[in-house]
């Protein structure tokens, strides 16, 4: 694994961007969505960035880059076509242990931007570690088509109910089983369909049901051993199981 996947909270944190053209513009829009305090160093700005600066959505310094600018920021992004400048930015950030991304130059990156499917607060990030960005984009488009646009509302509702559940279901195991039921049941279907009031009622009804004290046994056929041939239901059963018994014919990829 070339990179450790992380989600960084940038809210009100200073982020330095060197460059003011369309390349920088794409990165800055992501940073602003994450509520970062964006500081741009560039001789000129693209029309879109100039508009953001005029509305004080970002701060702009029309000066040359100085290594000292890196001292008080959380992240650094170089989005210029000046290779010598990009190298200086990378060296300055690296010397100060700041995470740095030089656009389109993986060798000068200590972090990379993934392709993102945004169903806030639910986020799916896909990265090829900078090796095949087009492949990452294609996978993102496929996942985007699979995930309903209302999925974020489902996550928001779950967040609201979490503290209440702790007083009703006192063990971690009981809460896990509850969420597995509701996320694969009527509550999830109603929320994704936009029927939020009925969805909340379905969750309350599920919470009021007495929890089963007896378990169940599910038999999953592993076929010829190829994990890709497992059915979706079989995969879900394995993932949700408390205990998995298997014989020596089941291959490690299936168990993983």
Automatic annotation (TrEMBL):
Residues 150-207 form the Sirohaem synthase dimerisation domain. Residues 217-255 form the Tetrapyrrole methylase domain. Its EC number is 1.3.1.76. The keyword NAD applies. One of its GO terms (molecular function) is ferrochelatase activity. One of its GO terms (biological process) is siroheme biosynthetic process. It is an enzyme of class 1 (oxidoreductase). PANTHER family: SIROHEME BIOSYNTHESIS PROTEIN MET8. This is precorrin-2 dehydrogenase. It comes from Klebsiella variicola.
